[in-house]
Recover the amino acids of this structure.
């Protein structure tokens, strides 16, 4: 069957975790002309080891920009935290598929509120599990490193997992997004494997010329 998928420029879901956390207002102003969305990792220190981004902070950041907020909710009790983040103004909520039945609770609630929903998969999770979410989510995030940990290189399995997911979801109307290990030497490989978007952290936040970096990425 011939694919009808249109290849769009690489979606840049810029991670604010890698921004200067002491100067987020300035960082958002610097990055927003080049970001398609801002990626906010919300970790509770239990499900994922980091402690990051809470609803009151997100609500304040929401006042600073119109760029969509993509929340990656990594928490042991996601339904307890979800209402606060929805009220804070996030536009999309992605949750780890590994949460089991809690995934459906979050996805259903997010959609009921008129927001977009996504799922993420850790490296050890079979990509075939995404089939059950077709028609329910518009984003599939494939981790290229351990969840909730930054500064690691891309796992050797990452590109193959993206290719396999692309084959499973050939005409998926949403995006397959690569998260973790986004480096100058890896991003082209991820794009060639079928990624529609990436979660660049230091690659964008640490770039000497953010505009030039964004232009290069979108030409891949």
């Amino acid at each position: 069957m011939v694919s009808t998928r249109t290849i769009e420029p690489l979606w840049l879901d810029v991670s604010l975790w890698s921004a200067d956390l002491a100067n987020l207002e300035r960082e958002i102003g610097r990055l927003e002309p080049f970001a398609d969305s801002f990626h906010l990792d919300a970790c509770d220190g239990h499900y994922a080891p980091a402690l990051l981004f809470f609803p009151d902070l997100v609500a304040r950041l929401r006042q600073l920009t119109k760029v969509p907020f993509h929340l990656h909710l990594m928490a042991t009790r996601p339904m307890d935290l979800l209402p606060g983040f929805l009220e804070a103004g996030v536009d999309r909520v992605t949750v780890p598929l590994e949460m089991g039945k809690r995934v459906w609770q979050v996805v259903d609630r997010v959609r009921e509120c008129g927001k977009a929903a996504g799922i993420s998969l850790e490296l050890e999770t079979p990509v075939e599990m995404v089939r059950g979410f077709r028609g329910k989510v518009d984003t599939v995030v494939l981790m290229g490193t351990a969840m909730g940990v930054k500064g690691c290189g891309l796992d050797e399995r990452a590109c193959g997992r993206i290719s396999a997911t692309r084959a499973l979801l050939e005409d998926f109307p949403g995006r397959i997004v690569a998260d973790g290990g986004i480096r100058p030497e890896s991003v082209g490989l991820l794009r060639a494997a079928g990624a529609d978007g990436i979660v660049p952290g230091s690659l964008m936040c640490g770039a000497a010329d953010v505009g030039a970096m964004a232009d290069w990425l979108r030409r891949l």
